[in-house]
Amino acid sequence: MDFLNEFDFHLPEEQIAKFPLENRDESRLLVVDRAQSKFWEAPLFRDITTLVRPGDIFVYNETKVSYRRVFLQVESGRIHESIFLEPQDNQNQTWLCILKNRAKLKLGDRLSPVGFPNYQFVYQGPKEELSFLGSELTISDSDFEIFGNIPIPPYLKRNVTEEDKLRYQTIFANRSGSVAAPTAGLHFTEELKNTFRTLGAEFLPVELQIGYGTFRPLTTEQWQTKTLHSEKYLVSESTATKLNDARKEGRRIIAVGTTTLRVLETVFDSQLQKYKVGSSQTDIFLSPGDKIDSVQGLITNFHLPKSSLLLLVSAFATTQLVLDSYRYALKNGFRFYSYGDSMFLF
C-alpha cells in the first residue's frame, strides 16, 4: 500500500499523550478553515466557543467504554490478557475476544479472571487472529465492572489508573458496549457544553459501538474493498428529525469525532438530502477523493500515521491541508492520540 506512505510520519515518543491533562478543556486546539485553506491555534479547546454560531448542531457519540479488558488465569497460574469484544449469542455466553498467548492454550482449557474464580471461561478455539471464549453464565457489562478493567489504548504502554476510569469516558457516555472511547468528546466539560447552549448551539446523540478495528492497522484488503471493521450504530428518530430540520434551515451540523462522522455518513442519503433513522452495522471507509456531505464541521484528535482515521480527516478537508496541519502540530509540540490535543475543521 504505497499510497499510504504519504500519510506516514515520525511521532516522537514524548508527543504521545500518556496521561490526560488536569482539565479536559485545556488541550490545545488547532483550527482548520477548509474554505480559506489555512489553520491557526485557538489556543485552548475551550476557545472553540469563539467559533460557535447560533443554531449550530453538535452531534456526539454517546457510547460508553465497557470494562472489557480482563486478565485471565489458567489453573497453572499463567496469565492471559484479553479484551472481550462482542457476544456471539443472545445469552452473552460466547464471546469473541482478543486473547494474548493463545498458542499456549488447548481447546477446553479453563480460565478465570484473576481474583474471581467464580467466573469461568472455556477456550473454544481461534477465529483468525481472534478467539472464542465460552461461559456457562450470562456475562453482562455489570459483570465486567466486577472483574474487568477499562481498556485504555495499548500505545499508552502503561497500566490503568483510577483516573482513567473517569477520564477515559466522555461526559456524553450513556450506552455501554465500546472497547475504546470516542476521544473527541473527551475535551468537553459540562460547563463548556452549557456555554455552547448559551451561544445558541444544540447537542444531539448518535451511537457507534467502537470495536476491535480501533486497534488494527489498515490492511490491503480493506483498502481494496473500501470497507472497514463492522460496528453497530444507532440513530434515533428524534435525532434524525432534528438533523433534517437543521439541514432545511441551513444550520451547521458538526460531528464530535470520527465515529460520529462515520455514523452520519452511513445514514445520510445524499440524493434526498436526508438523514435516516436506523439501527444496524456500518463498515464505511472514507478516504481522500470521497465526498462528505453529512456535516459541515468536525472536531477530532491527532491520529496515528497511516490510519483510517487520518484518511477520513483528509477526506473531509484536503490531503495537503491536513498533512500541513499535522506537520505544524509535530513541529510545535502538540500532543497526539486519545489523551492528546484537538482539531476543529470546518
TrEMBL record:
GO cellular component, one term: cytoplasm
E.C. numbers: 2.4.99.17
Catalytic reaction list: 7-aminomethyl-7-carbaguanosine(34) in tRNA + S-adenosyl-L-methionine = epoxyqueuosine(34) in tRNA + adenine + L-methionine + 2 H(+)
A GO molecular function held by the record: S-adenosylmethionine:tRNA ribosyltransferase-isomerase activity
A Pfam family reported for this protein in Swiss-Prot or TrEMBL: Queuosine_synth
Stored InterPro entries: QueA, QueA_dom1, QueA_dom2, QueA_sf
Pathway(s) annotated for this protein in UniProt: tRNA modification; tRNA-queuosine biosynthesis
Subcellular location: Cytoplasm
Keywords, ordered alphabetically: Cytoplasm, Glycosyltransferase, Isomerase, Queuosine biosynthesis, S-adenosyl-L-methionine, Transferase
TM regions (residue ranges): none
Main location: cytoplasm
An example Gene Ontology biological process: tRNA queuosine(34) biosynthetic process
Subunit-level organization: Monomer.
Family: Belongs to the QueA family.
PANTHER family: S-ADENOSYLMETHIONINE:TRNA RIBOSYLTRANSFERASE-ISOMERASE
Record function comment: Transfers and isomerizes the ribose moiety from AdoMet to the 7-aminomethyl group of 7-deazaguanine (preQ1-tRNA) to give epoxyqueuosine (oQ-tRNA).
UniProt-recorded name of the protein: S-adenosylmethionine:tRNA ribosyltransferase-isomerase
Species in which this protein is naturally found: Leptospira bourretii
Encoding gene (name): queA
